[in-house]
Amino acid sequence: MSALVSVSGLTLTVGAGGREIVSDVSFSVAPGEMVGIVGESGSGKTQAARAIMGLTPSPLKVAGGSILFEGVDVLRASAAALRGLRGARIGMVFQEPMTSLNPSMSIGRQLEEGLKLHRNRLGAAERRERVLDMLARVGIRDPKAAVQAWPHEFSGGMRQRMMLASVMLLEPALLIADEPTTALDAVVQRDVLELMVALTREHRTAVLMISHDLPMVARYTERMVVMQHGRVLEEGATAAILERPAHPYTRKLLDAMPRRQPARAVNREAPIVEVKELVIDYAGRQRLFSRTGAKRALHGIDLQVRPREVVAVVGGSGSGKTTLGRAIAGLLAPSSGQILFRGAAVDRRAASWRDYRLNCQMVFQDPYSSLDPRMTIGELVGEGLRMLGGLSAQDKRRRVDEVLAEVGLGSEYAGRYPHELSGGQRQRVAIARAVVRRPAFVIADEPVSALDVTVRAQVLDLFADLQERHGFSCLFISHDLGVVEQVADRVVVMRDGAIVEQGARDEVFDRPSEDYTRKLLSAIPALESTASGGVRLRWRLDEPAAARA
After folding, report:
1. 273 has which bridge partners?
2. Does position 453 have pLDDT exceeding 90, yes or no?
3. Would 519 be classed as within a structural domain?
4. Using one digit for the tens of pLDDT, what is the confidence trace for 29-66?
5. How far is CA 389 from CA 366, 456, 461, in A?
6. What does the alpha-carbon distance between residue 401 and residue 467 come to, in Å, rounded to a whole number?
7. Is residue 296 located within the same domain as residue 415?
8. Are strands 336-341 and 273-282 parallel, antiparallel or unpaired?
9. Exposed/middle/buried for residue 531 (C-beta within 10 Å: 0-12, 13-18, 19+)
10. Best CA proximity match to 167, nearest among 154, 155, 180
11. Predicted TM-score of the model (pTM)
């Protein structure tokens, strides 16, 4: 079968010295085929894919190679020819739909825009009918209301569905999906991906899927391309590469996948942190032309965390996971209920409040937004020692150097600023800041969700090592079930602000008692090791009907 798109010898450079970002990359995609490109952040996979649409950013220059799409060399095509290809023949779904959707335009106007440009023979009534039909097909319950709404009024999953609708309205020959489900929870991930597969199969659209999520690539693609440092290291049938990886880097990626660790002995000690009948209500607020009603975010939560225990909180977006973590950390005032620390009620008005806040630290999901860009790394980490008496300035500097060494950075990073570090390094700084004063309890809110597979493995190993060394308890909030399976002693499942199930990790993962838990566990596949040194696809529970189709 002839290729729909053929990339041959693509080389992209940056700077006067011509440093190669993408080096001699070659691969092809046939009509109707699904191909995955995998690799760590900085491997060049996104830039190679963007070049297919002629969207190479200005600092980069094409130094060699060709990209043939339906016989047209994209790299040498005119601006007018590229405008005819983008959208009409090649569509792209980006990683973050909120940055792709125009916040000043209604959903209806944005979806009609492509039809006006590339299907200009359609009248206004027919365009609207097509938009409404496509919104219904991607699972929008009230398409007529949706076309009049704005992007900020929808969840991440709904926005990603709308991005997919806007692309598939034009029935392109090639869909490029760049990390399309990174920020979505497990159930929404599956729904969006199954929808994408159904729509592309119907129109025989080829898909180029860019991702560091190996289970997702294993489930949905027929072939895969492995990239590192701008080069293709391995290419072939997805199942064959995963089961018998030929390149050491591919084996490294597979080895970095989360794996269930042996269960630790059950801790029978008294809880270090206990939550009783916790309720959080959000008051309504006046918007520009309307008022939102009050909402109950947490409904009578009961939870215990014992010394040196890791309790994972899982659930879909909007389930109340982060609200629970922020309430326990003292960042939200409970509407009712109690939080106890070492058996004593936590009261903001009592003298014990200061002790609790110093012993309870939080690692946030996005370290870039939680680290002050005006402070050096040394100042950020040392800030946690301000309220710790008995330490001289020299002692504090020594403690900062010690904790930076513990997280694998070293004292030479103390004088740098957050923007000078990679995402993984910034997350190490966030962890260092949380543990610098040796807290008894750490709340980790999606601490590895934005990291690629190898960096995620390094941060998880670091976190486990620090917990073993310092003995703190942890509330670990995550929608990544593979990570939870690796780190958790116990698992708490939340839905709509309530706990629907909790228990030992193996009990919840292997014998869930609630339908919602089973739905979560069956949403995303995992990879299990094979005797040949590779991995193969497996489902944590019975494979869903959509996956068997």
Report:
1. 305, 341
2. no
3. no
4. 999 999 999 998 888 999 999 999 999 888 899 999 99
5. 30, 35, 31
6. 18
7. yes
8. antiparallel
9. exposed
10. 180
11. 0.82
